[in-house]
Specification:
This protein is of the alpha/beta class. Helices cover 35% and strands 18% of the residues.
Length: 276
């Protein structure tokens, strides 16, 4: 169960949501489930707590991308008004293990509403069943699909924006680094990156990792377990923040940090990896 520290430094609405999540965790006995099954169940139940009324003027459609041996579910959010004509491919967070189209439905709807972009939410393969780089391969398959569907689907553009939150931010950055290291012509090109508190590297000993390791939702122990199960340690883009030769070649990148998050990019990491 999540501890409940003094929530004064946190936005009151967020503190309230944290308390609801902690209570849901305490009230959901799952002795028959293993760690992964429990985390997935709780993430879906938490999504129900977050769900708001659908925003007006957002057209939502389901799509399925065919890839070798699998099918990738994609959900599109297209604003009827103020449409920018651009497409943002979004990779959801959840420690590479949990999270889904439903857990990030509200976020993607708001991203479409406030940006004017069509947002494509990707349900990539998750660990532990599909270790890294399976999720990156799914992101690449969606970019290839967008290239193939130009002239068929209005949001299939030759250049797209790529983004994600937390583990999804890591996957977006990993995908961009991989595209630099192994460029492919028949995929939609990444025009820019939008990263919400991306995970970059396991085992970081930052002040935020120490101060917020307990009591703020994601714990240090859970983060260590997520990294342990991720796999792919032999691949350079698994830790994209250390791919120093590729970082200067990244497209324009916007990074949003979170003040009480242990997994995301903190100020010392920004200086180390990006020089700002």
């Amino acid at each position: 169960m999540m501890h409940s520290p003094d929530p004064t430094p946190i936005d009151p609405a967020l503190a309230h949501t944290q308390r609801r999540f902690a209570q849901l965790d305490a009230d959901t006995p799952t002795p028959q489930l293993d760690y992964v099954q429990r985390r997935r169940l709780l993430s879906e139940l938490q999504a129900c707590l977050l769900r708001t009324q659908p925003l007006p003027g957002i057209a939502i459609q389901q799509h399925f991308v065919s890839a070798p041996g699998r099918e990738i579910a994609v959900r599109s959010y297209t604003p009827a008004a103020r449409a920018s004509g651009q497409t943002l491919v979004w990779l959801h967070g959840g420690g590479w293990m949990v999270g889904s189209l439903d857990t990030h439905d509200d976020l993607c709807e708001h991203l479409a509403h406030f940006s004017g972009h069509t947002v494509l939410s990707v349900h990539y393969r998750r660990t532990p069943e599909s270790p890294f780089p399976a999720a990156v391969e799914d992101a690449q398959a969606v970019l290839q699909w967008l290239h193939q569907m130009q002239g068929v689907l209005p949001f299939a553009q030759p250049q797209v924006l790529l983004g994600g939150d937390s583990a999804g931010g890591h996957l977006a950055l990993s995908s961009a680094v991989h595209a630099i290291q192994q460029p492919v012509a028949d995929r939609a090109q990444i025009q820019a990156l939008l990263l919400f508190y991306p995970c970059l590297q396991p085992g970081l000993s930052t002040p935020s990792m120490t101060e917020f390791a307990e009591g703020y939702g994601l714990t240090g122990g859970a983060m260590d377990e997520y990294w342990r199960v991720l796999g792919g340690a032999d691949l350079p883009w698994r830790t994209p923040g250390l791919c120093h030769a590729s970082l200067p070649q990244l497209p324009p990148t916007a990074i949003v940090t979170a003040s009480h998050d242990i997994a995301g990019l903190c100020a010392p990491c920004r200086a180390k990896f990006y020089g700002f």
